[in-house]
Design a protein that fits this description.
five-stranded antiparallel β-sheet, 2 helices, disordered N terminus
Length: 118
């Protein structure tokens, strides 16, 4: 690398897909992206990947605290993965998440805590 030259940006696929999904979820309004108050997440869960109508989907949910005083929220987001273009997109289709087995999604809890400074 020449002197004064910036390093090349990391490609999207350089990060694990679960970290990319967590980052996408945190950019959603339901997950507090426009909140003036700091939020924190607990017991985050992810389902997927699973196929639905030719789409590869993930479902993310969590317990969010901090945006409303005294009452926790349960944000949810459905993420579509386009493997050919290596992209992730949040979609509006909550019904596809019914009946899928979830597992802990520590990447969301960890990423949100590093962004909030805790």
């Amino acid at each position: 690398m020449a002197r004064g030259e910036a390093p090349a940006p990391a490609t999207a696929s350089a990060k694990p897909v679960r970290e990319r999904i967590a980052a996408l979820a945190l950019r959603q309004v339901a997950f507090g992206s426009v909140s003036l108050l700091p939020v924190r997440f607990e017991s985050s869960r992810i389902a997927g990947p699973f196929e639905d109508g030719g789409r590869t989907l993930y479902c993310v949910s969590s317990h969010m605290k901090g945006r409303s005083f005294g009452k926790g929220e349960r944000p949810k987001v459905v993420v579509r993965q386009d493997k050919a273009a290596d992209t992730l997109t949040a979609i509006d289709d909550d019904e596809v998440c019914q009946g899928h087995r979830t597992e802990p999604f520590a990447e969301l809890d960890t990423l949100s805590n590093t962004k909030s400074g805790t």
